[in-house]
């Protein structure tokens, strides 16, 4: 499936502002590199660098920088949420992204379809404890609820040994299983996005 015209927005949901190093950002960079190999251009944005106000509206008023991020989401074919695991859950930043995306439930296109219906979402997770499957399930469900489609095996993750302090960014080399998951998830996400772009979901 030709995906040369596709683009992805990768939202890094680390709690660390730039330019601090981040394992989530490192995995996001790897996701972006794999997307490029599959003909997809990507942009990486660290959410905590912006003033994304709490709320469930498209625009929470003066000072809210979510509307600019929202424009990028609407212009993208694929949305990736890259998050660390904190106390066994997705970061609070990723939760805020989902809360702001809740506003899109009431938005429809010219055919009356939910505005996010023909877009694909993917999840990337890093952490030093067990819980990646829980985090992926949590975020994937929320993304599906607001209208995104999730490709087969549409996620990638790395978790370190429980109760140890090694970060993903501390590794000398990315484990083969994580690299393979990143390749499969980006390839399948690009394939599904191309399919939906050429044959959108039907209107009601």
UniProtKB/TrEMBL annotation:
Coiled coil: none annotated. The lineage of its organism: Bacteria, Bacillati, Actinomycetota, Actinomycetes, Micrococcales. It holds the Pfam family FMN_red. It comes from the Bacteria. InterPro entries: Flavoprotein-like_sf (IPR029039), FMN_Rdtase-like_dom (IPR005025). This is Flavodoxin. SUPFAM superfamilies: Flavoproteins (SSF52218). Residues 14-150 form the NADPH-dependent FMN reductase-like domain.
